[in-house]
Structure formats: C-alpha cells, structure tokens
Amino acid sequence: MAEQDKPLLIKRYASRRLYNTETSDYVTLEDVAGFIRDGREVQILDLKTGDDLTRQYLLQIIAEHESRGENVLPVNVLNDLVRSYMVPGGGVMPQFLQASFDMLRDSQSKMMENMTAINPMAQMPGFEAMKTQQEAFLKAMTGGMSGGWTGGGEENDSGESDDDLNTIKRQLAELQEKLSKLS
C-alpha cells in the first residue's frame, strides 16, 4: 500500500499536543485540516489509551470553521443532523450523507475525465502538467469540499448556471494560456 493510501497517523499526547508520526513533528488542528484538504486521510490516536479520537477532532475542525464564519452547513442541515441523533439507531442520515459525498466525488472525477476527453490538447506534450493544473483549479473552485459550497440548498436557474460555467471555462482558458507560455 502506498504511503498516501494509508491514513496519516497522528498521536495525541497527554498534553493534548498532536504528533505527526510521518514527519516526526508536532502539528496543529489547522495542519490536520490541511492534510485532509490535500486529500489525505488521517487517524488520530490517544497515545496513552490507544483510543481513536479521529471523529472527535474532525468534528472540532468543522466546528471551528463554522464559528469563524466559514459556513458550509446550513442551519436546516445542522438541525437534521441533531434530529438524526435523536432517532433510535441513528436513522438513515449517516448512510445518506456518505452516499451523497460519494456521488459528489464520483461526479468531480467524471467531470475531470470528460474535460480530458473533449480537450483537443490532450495529445500535446506537457498535457499531464496541464491536467494537474486543471485538477488543482477544480479543487480550488470547490474549496476542496470545504468553503466553496454555500449550501443554500436552492437550485440556480439556468442563467446562473450558464454564467458559472462560462466563468469556469474562461478561467480554465486563462490557465491553459499561462501554461502554454511556460512551455
């Protein structure tokens, strides 16, 4: 298994400091959030007891981002989450959320594949570097699944969707132009 496929093991000391076992240094909660935004899975274990604290720390990261005004979860979604905890057995909310995020990731992957397939520049040398730039651009546009989605829950009319698509196309063309100048 490749190093990036394994969860990054972080140990919490009795002093509550977090220790990155790969780099042998202490990290902050914001560092952990950065690892996750970069696509890395993390596992946080209590050094003394061996308890898995990952869920607790992930919830803390979300709470801190929400408290700073980086509202990703609308109040009605938060209410539904609280209600789901009140249902015996947890209801269907966890499965629904997991399926929703799986579909979102699949859609993003398919969108990247489609952009590659329709791109006439796919046969050009250096295309892989450009593809990496496109992926970084999309990740930045979606906020790495955080901060980029307003979560309003309302569908845009087609005019707004077309404007968004045209903006993305324009920005992508600008990136491609910059990349071609670098070659």
Strand order of the largest sheet: 3-2-1-4
Would you report the number of β strands?
A: 4
Structural class: alpha+beta
Provide mean pLDDT, rounded.
78
Write the H/E string, N to C: EEEHEHHHHH
- Radius of gyration over alpha carbons? 20 Å
Question: In short, what is this structure?
Answer:
The protein has 183 residues and is α+β, with helices and mostly antiparallel strands.
What does this structure look like?
This protein has 183 residues and is of the alpha+beta class. It is built from six helices and four strands, in the order βββαβααααα. The chain has a four-stranded mixed β-sheet. Helix 5 (127-142) runs antiparallel to helix 6 (158-182). It is globular and about 55 Å long.
Please give the structural blueprint:
Layout: E1 8-12, E2 18-20, E3 25-27, H1 29-37, E4 42-46, H2 54-67, H3 75-86, H4 93-118, H5 127-142, H6 158-182
Which features characterize this protein?
183 residues, 4 strands, alpha+beta, 9% strand
